[in-house]
Fold NAD(P)/FAD-dependent oxidoreductase.
Amino acid sequence: MHHLVVLGGGYGGLRVIQRLLADKEVNDVKITLVEREAYHSLKTEFYALAAGTVADRHLRIPFPDDDRVEHICETVTSIDIEAQQVELKSGNVLSYDDLLIGLGCEDKHHGVPGAQEKTLSIQSMRRARKTNQIIQNVPHGGRVAIVGGGLSGVETASELRESRTDLDIRLYDRGENILSMFPPKLYNYVTDWFIDNNITIINRANITEVDWKTLYNHGEPEELDAIIWTAGIQPNKLVRDISERHHLETDRIGRVQVTKYHTIPGFDNVFMVGDCAASDHAPSAQLAEAQGDQIAVLLRHKWNGQPYPETMPKMKLKGVLGSLGKKHGFGLMGERQLIGRVPRVLKSGVLWMYKHHSGS
């Protein structure tokens, strides 16, 4: 019997499990999923949970109920890819034939003193829930800072405006403009939306230190009631440890350079997916699912004694959609730039379809 251990029940890990269970050619397999939560979480919507516009029950999807799948609700503490063992917080050790690492990402604090300990996060459901609790206790007219003007920061700021119209919301970004990865039409539209909705954008920010309720921009202190950090990500620490131990090549944000078959070089039974694996594409749920689709096919070939295809098909991603509250949005679908209500409706539709097809 083939034993696959899947670390992390995120978009990539869940997609591999779903595809394998649905494949009639996959037989005689045991899948062990290690995920500390009892459910799959819709991480792309954690900004709404943090802002208080969505309850966490709407962001949970049960894992597949199948005799071939065992869900261990624990935290992974170490991974030994040479011994083919995974150690859990309880002290239990799992052995595997094949391993899928999909442990996701963490905030990257860029060495800013105090940022890791004294800011709020939306990188996990638990942390997004805690962020919401603190935000809802900010007094009327309080000031909230969001550090980082990428997609996560923009969606968090806009959703928070919808949740708390009374707050003084300030978005700090180190670039000349927010959403620098998007075309001018889109970031100008979002900038105008922020101005119309009284969200202050501080461009060319340089956060040098963070204290409790104090943000130092270019060394100057600014008093705040809460600080949310969305200024970059990096792979899970266990993945970074593997990279250092085995001297693996990584990309600029620390994702491991994997082979064309999504495996760690030198370890053809260890696959990486999602925010752990380097790619020409930016990290996203869509990318993790596309990688998961290919990994499931490769595992089927491997278990059936079939060779891998000489070349792998190019992953085709549909684009990026962002929200500005519940009524407006922006997006990039191929070469097409979308603004206004249409991209927001599209994003809601994509979310509904995902939940529907995942069993929610």
About this structure: The mean pLDDT is 95. Residues 285-303 form the longest helix (19 residues). The chain has two domains: 2-36+74-106+233-317, 109-231.
